[in-house]
Design brief:
The chain is of the alpha+beta class. Helices cover about 30% and strands about 30% of the residues. It has 2 domains: about 5-205, Rossmann fold (3-Layer(aba) Sandwich); about 215-300, Alpha-Beta Plaits (2-Layer Sandwich). It has helices at about 45-50, 75, 95-100, 110-120, 135-145, 165-180, 190-195, 215-220, 260-270, 280-290, 305-310, and strands at about 5-15, 15-25, 25-30, 30-35, 60-65, 65, 80, 150-155, 185, 200-205, 210-215, 220-230, 240-250, 250-255, 275-280, 300, 320. The strands form 4 sheets. A 6-stranded mixed sheet has the order 7-8-9-4-10-11, sandwiched between helices. It starts with a strand and ends with a strand.
Length: about 325
């Protein structure tokens, strides 16, 4: 596959703590990839290593087919980074910021940037310091696209934006970049945003990439099973793929990765009065997956059907299931 991003055993320590742990990340060109994780999971550190802002302690990074240590200036110009919080020079006008940014890129597509500013109804003479958070995010996106990058890396780009501005920002970002077949890697705490735009998701837990698969397959593989007994619920025995087991009154709420015949038989062996299988959206699947027992979390392998050209038996390969 033609990969825009490739890492090998990427590792970073802070004060003796391993914040990114042997990360092997593969992102195919033209993909919109959502990198997810709770606070402290290692997402921002990963993005900063990819952009050269932080040096890894171990491992290798390739961007657009070149090692990051020897990345040619012409290749760097094909990569854009949008930092969390959209830091901009508040004393400049939008036009001044555009002129300043384009001065670094001889082949900058100034016409494209002006079209984006017009799309967002941003007046070029407006002072950046007087713009709202949403408007600064829009200016940041426009400036990041000045060199017409092939790869765009965004660190929580919609953080702090209201719902309407956030949706408009994301939809515009996808329309502008994907129509040219560009690759987008972005982290976000807003799972609804990720579900709307991401082709593929990765989930980091304690620095480890636990999930790397199409977004739809992740949602399809995490299931909540509500088991009603009408009285004292029996103990659920250990079962492959069981993430969590919560007692709520006379029922047990179970969460599985890969709920299939073996898991179904284990539930039915408890002689329940009623069994309800609940399909989850991306946000619920993420929450249920990341708050399960850490020691027994299964690791989602690369989607086998996609990599091998076939169809996996249960949609996603799972390793190390409890």
């Amino acid at each position: 596959m033609d990969e825009a991003i490739r890492t090998e055993r990427l590792t970073k320590y802070y004060g003796g703590r391993k914040v990114v742990d042997h990360l092997n990340l593969r992102i195919t060109r033209g993909t919109v990839y959502g990198l997810l994780g709770r606070n402290g999971a290692g997402k921002s550190t990963t993005l900063k290593m990819l952009t050269g802002m932080v040096r890894p302690d171990y491992g290798h990074i390739e961007l657009l087919g070149e090692g990051i240590e020897t990345l040619a200036p012409s290749t760097r110009a094909r990569i854009a980074y949008l930092a969390e919080g959209h830091p901009l020079s508040t004393g400049m006008t939008i036009r001044q910021a555009l002129t300043f940014t384009c001065s670094f890129y001889p082949n900058a597509d100034r016409q494209l940037v002006e079209q984006i500013l017009d799309h967002f109804a941003l007046p070029p003479k407006a002072k950046i310091g007087r713009l709202s958070k949403g408007q600064r995010a829009q200016v940041s996106l426009a400036l990041a696209l000045a060199p017409d990058p092939e790869l765009l890396i965004l660190d929580d780009p919609t953080l702090g934006l209201d719902t309407n501005v956030r949706r408009d920002f994301l939809e515009s970002m996808i329309q502008i970049i994907q129509r040219r077949g560009r690759t987008i890697l972005f982290s976000s705490h807003v799972l609804g945003d990720v579900e709307r735009v991401a082709d593929r998701v990765g989930v980091m837990i304690d620095g480890v990439l636990r999930v790397d698969c199409p977004a739809e397959h992740f949602k399809a593989s995490v299931r909540k099973v509500i088991v009603e007994f009408g009285g004292e619920p029996p103990t659920m025995p250990a079962c492959p793929g069981l993430l969590s087991d919560w007692r709520v009154g006379t029922r047990r709420e179970l969460v599985f990765v890969g709920y299939g015949p073996r898991q179904r038989a284990a539930v039915e062996a408890l002689s329940p009065r009623r069994v309800e299988i609940v399909e989850l959206n991306l946000e619920d699947a993420f929450i249920e997956y990341t708050r399960g027992p850490r020691r027994s979390l299964p690791i989602f392998s690369q989607y086998q059907g996609e990599l091998q050209g076939g169809q996996a038996d249960e949609g996603i390969g799972v390793e190390g299931a409890a």
